[in-house]
Amino acid sequence: MRMNSNRGAAGLALLILVSLWTPRARAIPPDPDNAALLYYQAFLSLAELSDGERKVIRAVAKGEADPNDRAREYIQKCRGAIEFAEAAAQVPTCNWGFRFSQGFDALMPHLSQVRFLTFVLVADVRTRAVDGNYRGALERCLLVDTLARQVGDDTLVSYLVSIAVRDSGHRCMIDVISKASGDASVLRWLKDELATRPAWKLTPVRPLKIEMEIALDAMQVGKLDAFTRIVSEDEQTRAKILAAANEDVLARGRALYSQCITAMLPILGSSLPYEQTHSQLEQLSGGFDPNDPAATFAGLMLPAINRVHTLGARSEAYVNAAAAGVEVCLQKINSGKLPATLPAGLPKDPFSGQDFQYERTDDGFVLRCQGKDLDKDVMEGFQFVVK
Amino acid sequence: MNEREDERWFDEQLERAVNGSTPVFDAESWRKTHAGEYEILLARHDRPDGCGVRSVWVRRAAGLAIAAVVVMGVALFFVDGPGSEEPVPPTLPVVRSATEMMTMRSLRLAYEQGGEEALNRQLDMALDRLGPRLNGLTTLRVVWDLDG
User: Fold this and answer.
1) CB pairs under 8 A between A and B
2) Does residue A134 surpass a pLDDT of 70?
3) Does the beta-carbon distance from B119 to A160 stay under 8 Å?
4) Closest Cα to residue A240, out of A293, A286, A289, A292?
5) Cα distances (angstroms) measured from residue A280 to each of A102, A159, A257, A286
C-alpha cells in the first residue's frame, strides 16, 4: 500500500517536472507569421545610402552598369535587409496592413521601399552572376519572384508594382540563364525549381473589385472635394466637376461606373485570348457620352484597365520565355548545338496563345511573341546570348 | 516693363547669375550636385570588359562623354544659374509632398497620366524625397539616446 503511494508520489513529481520543463522548452516565441512584418524590418535595415549610391544600385540592377567594388560595398551594406527578405520568402502569409478605410487617401509607403529592395536584390543577382555563382544568382531571382507574389493585389497600384517587381526578376533571370547556358546542373536545377514552385498568377479582378467599392464610396455629394482630387490634378477640371455634380448626377454616375466594372470583371477573370479580352475591355471603356456629366464622371473614375491587363500578359511572357529558354539551353548542352526548331510542349506566348517564335542568331537565340502588345503596338522579344 | 527695361532687368539677372565676373566651371561643386551621375560614370569606367582596341575606343568615348557632360554642365551653369532645380519630367503630375506622393490617389493618378513608367518614377522619387533608411549605427545611436 505504502509502496503504491510512493509510486504515485514519484509519478506526480515526474509529471510536475515534465510540465515545468515543457513550457520552458516552448518558451521561445515563434517568428512572425506575416511576411510583411519581416519586409518592414528589411526596409528599416536597408543601408543609409545617398542619392548617388542608390542610383548606382539602380544602374547595376537595370544592367546599365557593371557591379564594381563600390556597388558591391553598397550591396554589402544592405546584407541585413536581404536576410530579412530571405526569411520573409519562407512565410506563406503576407498582409501589408493597408488601411482600406482611408480610401484613395490611404498611404502606401511600403511600395517605394519594395521597389528599392528589388533593386538591391537584382543588383545582388548581377553581382553573383559576374562572379560565376549562377546558382546563387538564380536563387536570388526566385526570391524576387516570391517578393513580387507577396506584394500582392490589395489595390491596382500594388498589383502594378507586383508586376514590375516580377518583370525585373525575370528580365535578370533571362540574362543569368544566358550566362549559365553551358552549366547543365544549374539549368536542370532551375528547370526543376520552375516546374515545382507553386504557380501563381495575379489578376486585376480582386483589386478592381476593391477599387470599385472605394470609388463608389467616394462618388458622393458629401465627398465631392475628395472625388475631384482622385480624378484630376487640374484645377479647371475640378471646378467643372464641382459645378456639374449634384445628387442625381452622382447617383447615375455611380450606376454607370458600377455597371461598367461589373461587366469587366468576368472578362478579366476569364481565359479568353489576349486580343479578345483587349477588344472587349476597350469597348466597355469607351462608350461614355461626353455630353452627359454622369457618364463623364463614370469615365473619369475608370482606370486604364486595358493597360493593366496588357502588363499582366507581358509579365506572363517574361515568365514563360525564361522557362522556354532553359529548355532550349539544355537541348544545346545535350546535342552540342542549338535546336533547329523550338522543342514542343513549352510555355506559350500569352499575347497569341501560340508557341514563341524561335530564331537562332549570331550570338544565341531569340524568343519572340507572335501577338502584339496592342497598347504599344509592339511585339515583345527575349534575347538569350549563348556562347 | 517696356523693351528697354526688360533688357536691363535681363542684364541684371545675367550679371547676378554669373556674379559679375568671368565664370569658372567648378568641377568639385558639379561633382557634389550631380553625385549620382558621377557615381554611375565611375561605375561604368570600372567595367572589366575594356581591353585592346575596344578599350581605346571605350576610353575615347568615355572621354568624349565626360567632356560633353562637362560642357553641358557649364552650359546649364550659365542658363539656369548655380543651385537651380532639375526639370521635372512632364508626365509626372504635380504633387505636394513626399507623403502626398505615396497616397493611393496620387500613385493611381500618376499611372493614369503616364502609365507604368510614371508610376515607377513617382515611387522612386518618393523614396529619394523621404530620405534614406536608418543604418545600424544610427539605430544604435537612437538606442543610446533612449537610454539617456
Assistant:
1) 138
2) yes
3) yes
4) A293
5) 32, 21, 16, 10
**A235 lies within 8 A of chain B by CB:** no
Is A304–B130 a contact, with Cβ atoms under 8 angstroms apart? no
Please state, as a whole number, how many other Cβ atoms lie within 10 Å of the Cβ of residue B19.
10
- Convert chain B into a string of H (helix), E (strand) and C (coil): CCHHHHHHHHHHHHHHHHCCCCCCCCHHHHHHHCHHHHHHHHHHHCCCCCCHHHHHHHHHHHHHHHHHHHHHHHHHHHHHCCCCCCCCCCCCCCCCCHHHHCEHHHHHHHHHHHHHHHHHHHHHHHHHHHCCCCCHHHHHHHHHHHHC
Q: Are strands A381-385 and A364-368 parallel, antiparallel or unpaired?
A: antiparallel
Q: Which residue of B has its CA nearest to A77?
A: B135
pLDDT digits (tens, 9 = 90+) for A226-275: 888 888 888 888 888 889 999 999 999 999 999 999 999 999 999 999 99
As to burial, measured by CB atoms within 10 angstroms (0-12 exposed, 13-18 middle, 19+ buried), residue A229 is middle
pLDDT confidence tier of residue B82, bands split at 50, 70 and 90:
very low
Give the strand pairing for A357-361 and A364-368. antiparallel
Which are the contacts of B101, defined by CB distance < 8 A and separation ≥ 6? B95, B107, B122, B125, B126, B129
- A57 versus B138: which is more confidently predicted? A57
CB contact under 8 A, B104 and A109: no
Which residues in chain B have their CB less than 8 angstroms from residue A163's CB? 116
Q: How far is CA A55 from CA A47, B40, B42, in A?
A: 14, 7, 12
Inter-chain touch A53–B39, beta carbons under 8 Å = yes
Of B12, B136, B54, B126, which is closest to residue A112 (Cα–Cα)?
B126
List CB contacts (< 8 A) between A80 and chain B: 136
Quick check: A70 and B109 CB within 8 A?
A: no
| Closest residue to B112, CB basis, from A43, A105, A304 | A304
Q: How far apart are CA A295 and CA A89, in angstroms?
A: 44
Q: Are A378 and A372 in contact (CB under 8 A)?
A: yes
State which residue of chain B sits closest to A158, comparing Cα positions: B104
Q: Give the residue from chain B lying closest to A72, CA to CA.
A: B43
DSSP string, A295-328: HHHHHHHS--HHHHHHHHHHHHHHHHHHHHHHHH
Residue contact A104–B132, C-beta within 8 A? no
Do A156 and A307 meet the contact criterion of CB atoms below 8 Å apart? no
Asked if residues A208 and A305 have their Cβ atoms less than 8 Å apart, the reply is: yes
Q: How many CB atoms lie within 10 A of CB A210?
A: 17
Q: Do A70 and B42 touch (CB under 8 A)?
A: yes
Name which of A296, A298, A307, A319 is nearest A367 in CA terms: A319
Task: Check if A304 contacts B (Cβ < 8 Å).
Answer: yes
φ, ψ of residue B126 in degrees (nearest 5): -60, -40
Separation of alpha carbons A111 and B102, rounded Å: 8
